[in-house]
## 1
Amino acid sequence: MDIFSKYLLEPVQYEFIQRALVASVTIGISCGLIGTYIMLRRMSLIGDALAHAVLPGVVVSFMVAGKSEIALFIGAVVSGIITVLLIGFVNRNSKIKEDTSIGIIFTGAFALGILLVSQLKQVHIDLSSYLFGDVLGVSTGDITLSIIIMAVIILCILLFYKQLLLTSFDPTMALTIGISTTLVHYMLMTLLSMSIVAGLQSVGVILIIAMLITPPATAYLLSNNLKKILFLSPMFGTISAVAGLYLSYHFNFASGASIVLVAVALFLLAFLFSPKEGVVTKLFRRRAATKLVLIEDVIKLSQRFAEETDKTGLADRIANELGISNSRVESAIKVLISKGLMQKTNGSYLLTDEGRKYATRLIRTHRLWETYVTREKVIDMEHIHPEAEKVEHVLTEDMVNELDEELGFPEKDPHGSEIPRK
């Protein structure tokens, strides 16, 4: 209980931590939602561009209205929209490609912002705070603005879900049914500018780019369903915000950097262990598939070498046929015995009835596939056997039956060997 109080409850006793948590969670949700569409549209570089290009708008607003949250918000959003318009104008009216025009416009806008900052002699603006944020220093006004922006983003996604979905995946179809892709694009860019403004104080311009990209990328590794991604992405953003702030409090780390590093850590976990896309998961899946292929090869060859009565002789012959070591074959034989597909009888290893059925199915698949590729002239005759050796491990029984029916239930394969029946 003492550990729970110390590590979980102690930080939230402070008002500045409470404000930081609320601000960071709203940023995590906003960036997670908008970042999903930015990632799916392959517009991450535009997110980077807008994160830098809002600086001149912020400085001009500060010159005109001082440190007013509303003024800074309006200035940043206007600056972001102007940047998007300029990028589009340059792209449409020159042979310069979009990525190049993005690089030119956003660096120019950022440089203009720095130039304007240098002219504010009477006021000191901390550029490091602008770049890296200061979530522990957020005001009530910052929090209110962040919550409003989050609510607007959620509302727009709920109201325009279909339009955003179609324009993200099939803009041609969207145009056909009367959806303006240009209007949706600029709406998305406006929401993106708003989410960037909301994150300026919390994680800063540089680190907000990571919050726009990393949680959606993590979610995308875990699902291909847009609704699930839209749920997972802000969830990962929220977890990153809360965990990052706790790490910042207990270990005296920079808050913005801690939040982003937690997000990156979550991405790495998904990258390594995602059920479908994880590197480690794929490695284990490949190993399991390789083991299954070996077992099936041993079953098929055991059927062919049924006359072998000595275990060592059978293992030697299979090992020579497959070009592998005896130990791997013997390991596969042990697996077959444990699964009831092979048994030891009078010192010899023979396939059981189930093992023979399994072997017959593999042989049938192999010969039917050879017949199919020969008839369709997919590959040369001399290459059909190696191809069938691979395919026999992949086709399901339903697929084999369908193939058999399509071929007209042939009795022999191209080599003249009989094709077993079910």
Note: The mean pLDDT is 83.
## 2
Amino acid sequence: MSVVIRLSRAGRVHLPYYHIGVYNSRTRRDGRPVEELGFYDPKSDKEPVRIDLERAKYWLGVGARPSATVATILKGQGIPSSAWSAKKAPSKADKEKKTAAKKTAAKKASAKKAAAKKPAKPAAKKADAAAPAKKRKPRTVSSKARGEKAKAKS
């Protein structure tokens, strides 16, 4: 299960506030969180952000990935980016590169084994190499050309 720390929107039109929570990565935007960590109120002057830093550090240590906005909020609260960037999850492209590299290495190893098992073949004779080319079939004559030839003969 891939876990992310992200915002879920609440409030009304033109007056948003956000819950900061830990979510399964496949959960919809305003879905049920695994755990609520705090809130972010961009319109408030008093206390725009309140977050449980101890629990946030725990989830980052376990491998939860913060969204871009939550990462900015965490930096503002004093949690360095090294807390979550050190455990970077491999991307899909990285996984594909690794599997491709493994496949090519396996092919090379099997080719070496096959070459080691086969005895060396003697060189082919020059007469076999210089075999005559196949004869081409004559071109077919179009019906229009046939009609003209028939007229010319009669």
Note: The mean pLDDT is 80.
## 3
Amino acid sequence: METNNDDGHSRLSPLFCGRAKRSGGAHSWWITRWEFLPPFFDLQATRAVGILLIVAGLPGLVDSFARFALQGLGTPAPIAPTQNLVVTGLYRYVRNPIYVAVVAVILGQAILFGDWRLMTYGGLMWLAFHAFVLTYEEPVLAQKFGAQYEDFRANVPRWIPRLSPWRTA
């Protein structure tokens, strides 16, 4: 999982980084070593908010991956994309539940551990996800799924979940 560069320092391999991006865990550990710092705003209660974000994000991540495999007949990876547009489960509320879940887990860990570096990392990950969605994912999905994707895109928000589930016609 790690490789050594010329100066002898270890670094994470690109393949491992791709997997960690999806899980939100490995990079978080690499940044924090999961050491608790003083809580944000000196309030221990903030740690509970972090736990809630992690607990909310993990099942959403698992459910979304399962839907990609079982309903979409593919993976979230661009090299093995889904054959079917997935518009069930959390996808009825938000178009990008995997990215939302990963960022929730990262920010939850940042709040739990009281670590601003991890909070910054979560923000940078969201920006990277946003750029990827705008420049690659949405154009590819529009081309591949046409009117079905346009209907989905018109009714389901990209990042902030709807309050009620979208139902296809």
Note: The first strand starts at residue 2 and ends at 4.
## 4
Amino acid sequence: MFILLTALMSGNVTVDYLYFSSPYCHACKIQTPIVKELNKDGYNFKIIEGGSSRYNVLSYPTFIIVVTEKGKEIVIVKLQNRQWTKKDLKNLVRAVNLIIRLHG
């Protein structure tokens, strides 16, 4: 998490929130509606069905936070094998956005 904070504090970054799921994953059947509901509330999680060799996603559900600076991915945080509540995910996004606002 320290690397993420350092990158966000450098300013001029973009942050992408990726959510990887599978239709065969029991936990995803609970998690995906929460993510979709957050997107309706204005959050911007990119929902991706299936894995990713680029980010080494092999299990579900997986959240990836990608921080990009000057067109180059500088930080990737992988959060997997955990159920996240709507409140958890909102707090995660708010914390990242707060760091960007304070140091951007």
Note: Residues 86-103 form the longest helix (18 residues).
